[in-house]
Amino acid sequence: MATRESMDKLIQQCEDAIRFAQDQYEEGRLQAHYDDEGYTYALQSLENAYNDLAKMALSANAQQREQLHRMRLQLQQLQNQMIILPHD
């Protein structure tokens, strides 16, 4: 079973990645990807968080896996939105 501390740390990492990516998404939407490097880094952060969630799920109990699954869905949804945003 994953420890509560490791779960909390991972969830915080995911939430930080989501906040940063949402900021980059809004900037990209409003400014037509003025900061490509930040946008790319945000996508990479989401992917890293997603991969870390998958690893943690291997040692998580059922309740923890459910929490990780919900977070994974949030990450995927934001990744998809960022990928399909038109790039001028």
What value does the Rg take, in angstroms? 14 Å
Largest beta-sheet characterization:
none
In whole angstroms, how far apart are the ends? 46 Å
Report the count of strand segments.
0
How many structural units, i.e. domains?
A: 1
Beta-strand residue fraction? under 5%
**Portion of residues in helices?**
over 70%
Q: Give the SSE string.
A: HHH
Report the average pLDDT across residues: 91
Decide which structural class fits the backbone.
Answer: mainly alpha
Outline: elongated
Unreliable stretches, pLDDT < 50, 5 or more residues?
none
What is the overall number of helices?
3
Structural features:
mainly alpha, single chain, DUF2524 family protein, Uncharacterised_YtzC
Structure description:
The chain has 88 residues and is mainly alpha-helical. It has one domain (4-84). 83% of the residues lie in helices and 0% in strands. The chain is built from 3 helices and no strands. Helix 1 packs parallel to helix 3 (62-84). The chain is elongated. It starts with a helix and ends with a helix. The mean pLDDT is 91.
Write the layout of secondary structure elements.
Layout: H1 4-31, H2 36-57, H3 62-84
Protein name: DUF2524 family protein
Coiled coil: 4-81
Keywords: Coiled coil
